[in-house]
Amino acid sequence: MLGPVILAASRSDRMRRLVSAAPVTKPVVDRFIPGETVDQIVPIIRELTDQGLELTMDVVGEDITTPEQAEAARDAYLELIDRLKPLDLGTRAEMSVKLSMFGQALDGGHELALKNVRPVVEAAAAIGTTVTLDAEDHTTLDSMFAIHEELRKDFPQTGCVIQAYLFRTEADARRLADNGSRVRLVKGAYKEPAEVAYQQRHEIDKAYVRILRTLMEGEGYPMIGSHDPRLISIAQELARTAGRKLDEYEFQMLYGIRGDEHLRLAAEGHRMRVYTAYGTDWYGYFMRRLAEKPANLRFFARSMVSKG
Questions:
Q1: Are 49 and 55 in contact (CB under 8 A)?
Q2: Residue-wise over 179-208: b if at least 16 C-beta within 10 A, else e?
Q3: Which residues bind FAD (predicted)?
Q4: Cβ(58)–Cβ(276) under 8 Å?
Q5: 210 annotated active-site
């Protein structure tokens, strides 16, 4: 399987240099990451929302090694929120954050990440929107869930992400569904050992459906993070069976992948949110997009051949 190989490459400084230096890389990266600055991303926000889509915005970057870098990540999100304010989009444009960017992996990282992310959540609430905490590798999740629980005391709309391939996730989903959380369910995009995660696609898909059923039947707000047509159809059926209205759940897909499907779901009245990343530190995000789906890797390979 190529996925684990690509995920390993996402942590390689040598591969980072090679991929970043390749002339073909930037045009391909632009498919998934449409800008590096707030000035470049604001027109994209306007374009997508004018089409009836909603967004969750991610300032990319994960290799945080100092508290100062974590504070810079916080400030980048605060700048984004400041630029969103005059657009008056409310929850149509929310934020997604990786706690690793806020210092989670540093000494005292749990407290540091909470300290840095809280101002972002507060600022988002002040303009009528919210924040979702992205899931990272399994070693970070207890900290992420604890921060999520703490933030929800003052900001109950704060969301979190769970990953279907982890064995623990069915229990996490039951807990989150019972307490009324906003929860994005994804398959998972990190290399995880067999001791903690399903390794076969069919096992992950089955777990995804079981977990999604739990979320749909619970008290929270499910966010279906998938591009898989079969899982999207199953999600619609589970929502109908659970008696959910169209505004009581939403679909989420990545910018640059299945754009026609984004528009189709929105035209049918579904809430369709586009995960839109921007920034200069794009390498880790880009490599995981390649690992998630063979079609993405083929797209990149074809581009290298045609441009080389």
A1: yes
A2: eebbbbbbbbbbbbeeeebbeeeeebbebb
A3: 163, 187-189, 226-227
A4: yes
A5: no
CB count within 10 Å of CB 86 equals 9
Q: For residue 250, list its beta bridge partners.
A: 223
- Residue that the structure tokens 């070693």 belong to: 139
Whether 273 is catalytic: no
Instruction: Please pick, among 58, 134, 172, 205, the residue that the annotation labels catalytic.
Output: 134
Indicate if the pLDDT at residue 127 is higher than 70.
yes
pLDDT, tens digit, for every residue of 230-262? 999 999 999 999 999 999 999 999 998 899 999
Which candidate, 159, 148, 158, 222, places its Cα nearest to that of 185?
A: 222
Encode pLDDT of 185-225 as tens digits: 999 988 899 999 999 999 999 999 999 999 999 999 999 99
Strand partners, 273: 54, 252
Out of 74, 118, 182, 184, which one is annotated catalytic? 184
Q: How far apart are CA 204 and CA 201, in angstroms?
A: 5
**Burial class of residue 52, CB neighbours in 10 A (0-12, 13-18, 19+):** middle
- Furthest CA-CA distance within the chain: 53
Place of tokens 């083929």: 298
Q: Which amino acid is at 116?
A: N
Q: Cβ-count burial of 47 within 10 angstroms (0-12 exposed, 13-18 middle, 19+ buried)?
A: exposed
Annotated binding site: 98, 163, 187-189, 226-227, 288-289
Annotated binding site for substrate: 98, 288-289
User: Any idea what DSSP says for residue 132?
Assistant: E
